[in-house]
Design goal:
The protein has 174 residues and is an all-alpha fold. The chain has 9 helices and no strands. It starts with a helix and ends in a 17-residue tail after the last helix. About 7% of the residues have low confidence.
Length: 174
């Protein structure tokens, strides 16, 4: 592995951490997910062969590891469908903290497939094609999951207003 390749992997860490936090909403579990992703990337670097974007490859590794852990957790716990959401630390501004907590809770109640796509496109600013590469599904499926995820988020947050100000409703953009 060249120094440039190692630097490319290291440069992905902040984005991987942000994505992992969005997926699992627990700092410790997110750090474990990033660590596992980095270990797999280092161990399988020879499989990359410089085909495609290293960032998309790293996100694919994390995606696959996350999906595997979700599937194994479902096998172990049949009735744990997001009812026990982890506590979040209080933010510096109480109103901001409540809004962030509500959004994080709403995101965690989304199906994993929709949450992943929302995070990849909305937070990580990936294109539909990049998100399709990461998740291994067609672009049309990405678009569908994104639309359904946005709609469910809108429904979850509908009627909730930040303290002291009205919320503008989400609009569909074609």
């Amino acid at each position: 592995m060249h120094d440039q390749d190692a630097a490319s992997i290291v440069a992905c860490i902040p984005n991987l951490r942000r994505y992992a936090r969005g997926l699992v909403a627990d700092a410790t579990l997110a750090d474990d997910l990033v660590q596992d992703t980095l270990e797999r990337a280092w161990g399988r670097f020879s499989l990359w062969h410089r085909r495609g974007d290293i960032r998309a490859w790293m996100f694919s590794i994390m995606h696959n590891h996350f999906i595997d852990s979700v599937r194994s957790a479902k096998r172990r716990q049949e009735d744990a469908v997001g009812n026990d959401l982890p506590e979040h630390p209080q933010r510096a501004c109480h109103a901001d903290g409540l809004e962030v907590r509500d959004l994080e809770s709403a995101l965690q109640r989304l199906p994993a497939e929709q949450r992943e796509v929302l995070l990849l496109i909305g937070v990580e600013e990936m294109s539909y094609a990049e998100a399709a590469t990461v998740t291994g599904v067609p672009i049309g499926t990405i678009m569908s999951r994104l639309a359904r995820g946005r709609e469910k988020l809108r429904q979850e947050l509908q009627g909730r207003e930040p303290l002291g100000q009205a919320v503008a409703p989400l609009r569909r953009i074609k």
